[in-house]
Amino acid sequence: MLLEEVPVAVDSFNHDGGVLFFCSHAHEDHLKGLNKKWRKGPLFASAITRQLLLLKWPSLEITALELGRTYQIPLMDGLEIEVYLIDANHVPGSVMFLFSGYFGSVLYTGDFRLHEKHQDIASLAPVRDLVGPFLQVNFGSFSKTGDKGLSRIYLDNTFCDPRFQQPSREDVAAAISKRFRRKWPCIIFVESYRLGKETLLLHLAQKLRSRVLVSEERKKTMRACGFESDQVQIQSCDPLQASEDLLQTEALRGCIWAISRQNLRKGMWQASDSGCAFHGIRATGWAEQARKEESMPSCEDLDENLVAVSDDGVFHYLYSDHCSFLELVQFLQFLPKAPVTFISPVGSSEGTYSFDGADGIQKLMASASVPSIRYSERPTRCFEKTSLPRAKRKAEGPHEEDGYEQKKSAGA
DNA sequence: GCGATCAGCT
DNA sequence: CACAGCTGATCGC
Predict the structure, then answer these.
(1) Domains of chain A with CATH codes
(2) Residue A314: its H or E element
(3) What is the pLDDT of residue A256?
(4) If exposure means fewest CB atoms within 10 Å of the residue's CB, which of A119, A322, A346, A412 is most exposed?
C-alpha cells in the first residue's frame, strides 16, 4: 500500500510513485511486484525478512533495519523521514513501521498479533512528542485538543469482526502438546505455510522431547530466522519422498513433521499405507468453519482449544498469527486516537462463512473510539462463469477500485 | 524459451 | 469464504 501522507510504499512494490519501499514480512502476498530485477527505489526490511528475501532473490539490494531504534532516511528535496521498527509478533521477522516527519507520525502495523510490548508504542518519541506541532497546523480535528500522537494508523484488519475470539497461541500450543502426549509416539504432521508456525513446531518437539522434520527449503528458512538451537533438532526430510521404512522408524520414535497444506492428505495416506501411527494438525485462524463442517470429537475427548476433528483424522485448532477482534480494540486503546486505514479490503456479508465487514467496522469504531475508518472494498465475487479468454475480458475494461470512509458521526 | 504475472482454486 | 499459498495458462521480454 502506498501511504497517503508520504511517498512510501509498504508491502507493495509496483508503485512508480513510491520513493522509499518497506517490507513488513516475507509472506508471498506482501511481496507483490518484487522480483530479482526489481530496482524501483531503496528497499528496507528487518534483518530476518531481508535474509528471507535474499533466499528467494539473492541479487536484491535490501537495507536491514534493527528493531527499537530510530533511523533517518533521506526522502527527497532535502526532506527526510524517520522510521522505527516494532516487533509485530506475526511471523519471524515481521515488523510494524512507525514513520515520522513533516507529515506527522504514521503507524503501519502490517500483519500483527497483539503483544504486551505493543503498549509501549504510545510512549515512543515520535508518538509522544514530535507530532503535536504538525497536527496543530495540518489537521483541524486534532488542533482543538492539541493532542500529540498519530496522524494515521494503517491497521491489520484481517479478523476485524467480534466473532473472531481466538485464544493465545501459547494456550493452544500447550493444549496440543497435552493432547498428543497421550498419543505418543507417532508422526504428527503439522500443516504449515512456508513461513510461520515455527514456534508451534518447536514447542511440540520440546514438550514431546522430539525433533522437527521439515523440507530442505524450510530448513533454510528456519536457519535464516535464527531457529537453529541445541534444544531442538531440526532435520530436513520430505514426507512424500520418505520410504516406508523411514516412515515406520519415525512413527516408532515420534516426530513433528511440517507439511504443506496440499501435501497433508498425501502424507497421511502414505503413513497410513505404511501402517504407521500418525496424526494431522491444522492450526489456523479460520478453524471456526471446520467446527461447522466436520464432525466433532466425542465428548470425553473434548478440550477447550480443540475445534474439531475431521473424518480423516485431522485435528483442527484455532491458532492465529493475527489479532482477535478484542486484541484489535485493545491495541487501538493503547494508542492515541487517530483515523484508521484498513490494510486489507473489506468484503460484504455474502457467503456462508464470510463475516459482515461493515458490522466489524461499526463495532471497532464504537469499541475503540476510532474517529474514522478508511478502507477499500473487495471486488464482489463474480459467480457467473465466463468462458471468454483473458485477453477478451481484459479488453472490456478494468473496474474502478472504490474507496470508502466511514465517520464516527455517521454511525449509530 | 523462460521468467513474470494472472485466473482460479482451496 | 481464504490466514497464504499452489497450479497451470498466458503474457511479454
Answers:
(1) 8-162+323-406 (3.60.15.10), 169-318 (3.40.50.12650)
(2) strand A314-318
(3) 97
(4) A412
